[in-house]
Amino acid sequence: MNPISVLLVDDHLVVRSGLKALLGTQPDITVVAEAASGEEALVIAQQHPADVVMMDLAMGQGMDGIEAIKRLLQASKQQAVLVFTTYDSDADIVRAVDAGAMGYVLKDAAPEEIFAAVRGAAQGKSVMSAPVASKLFQQLRNPDEVLTPREAELLSLLIQGLSNRELGKRLFISEATVKTHLAHIYAKLGVETRAAAIAVAIRREGMR
Question: Residues where 4-aspartylphosphate occurs (predicted)?
């Protein structure tokens, strides 16, 4: 049986080197290539197809891990993407899963957990670090938990197509405060536009 081939994507050379050395201790796992950015990952993934792509989420300037995951999976549905990051916020986890990540492992995970995650992803299994799985489960049970009550209320009002001024009047707050709340909502949901936030709001209503 051929070893599981892995592509490492992380902007820190030290992290890639350490992870490569760690994975190299396993006879059934082989690192075939490395990339330092999302853009580079897309090119190298074509040159060196891997069973599993281990992807960091934040990589400085340029394409982030979420966008890279989407584009990788558009190019090849055969690859399994395993997020390997220090970020464990609810929004990051949900965004990664929505983008198509097969698993989500934190960088402080034990070596045995990392090995198991790579093997599981290669087999098409969803693998999550215990803290990540717990957060994702809570998020699915209560989609509004990531938002404050006021933010959740404002998000639900967005569906009605209210302007910032109308939102302010409805909630008895200033337009500036509305904009601040919207900025926080966008950041937490991992979206950049009003339309995207409304799409999330509609999906949440459907989950109730």
Answer: 56
Chain CA centroid to CA 105, Å: 11
What is the model's pTM? 0.66
CA 183 to chain centre: 19
Q: Are residues 79 and 121 in contact, defined by beta-carbon separation less than 8 angstroms?
A: no
For the stretch 150-167, what's the b/e string if a residue is b when 16 or more beta carbons lie within 10 angstroms of its beta carbon? ebbebbebbeeebebeeb
Instruction: Please check the confidence at residue 207 and state whether its pLDDT lies above 50.
Output: no
- Residue 54: what are its φ and ψ, rounded to 5°? -95, 115
Place of tokens 């919207």: 182
- Helix (H) or strand (E) run with residue 4 in it: strand 4-9
CA distance 156 to 132: 26
